[in-house]
Hints:
Blueprint: H1 2-35, E1 44-55, E2 62-73, E3 78-87, E4 90-102, E5 107-115, E6 120-129, E7 133-138, E8 144-151
Antiparallel strand pairs: 1-2, 1-8, 2-3, 3-4, 4-5, 5-6, 6-7, 7-8
Amino acid sequence: MKRRTVTMIVFGGGLTIAVAAVMLLALPQKARAAKGCTLNDARGTYGFQFSGFSPDMAGQPTFPFAETGRWVVDAAGNITGESRYSYGGMIFTHTFAGTLTVYPDCTAVSNVVDDPNGFHLESFWVIVKPREEVLLTSLTPGGVANGRAERMRGSLE
């Protein structure tokens, strides 16, 4: 009986140490989740890609598109950018400007206006790695698109 008690204490003590080590390793992520994200976590210059299907106009058939570009989010939540995209096999260039709202749960919503067409584009963001990586989904009615963005190294921010 004594031997069994000693074994259980040693095993139990080892298990306690292992659980404590796992909890300590997870602490920085939990600390960030408790703190939440702010606009500062999305600020900077990013390269991005989007692809999916988008209608030419509301109620029209959708066309495939793929887009690559860059945007800048400043400290006030303004977003500006430019990209090139293939829309139904035709190539276009556009610029855009708008705003970004970041929520404490590390999600965000961007609202931008495409220039020169004046299209309103809204996207849902998940900030995966603050100031480094973002996942994106279009919220613009009638289309389906998703993508990702990564912080551009060497940017001045």
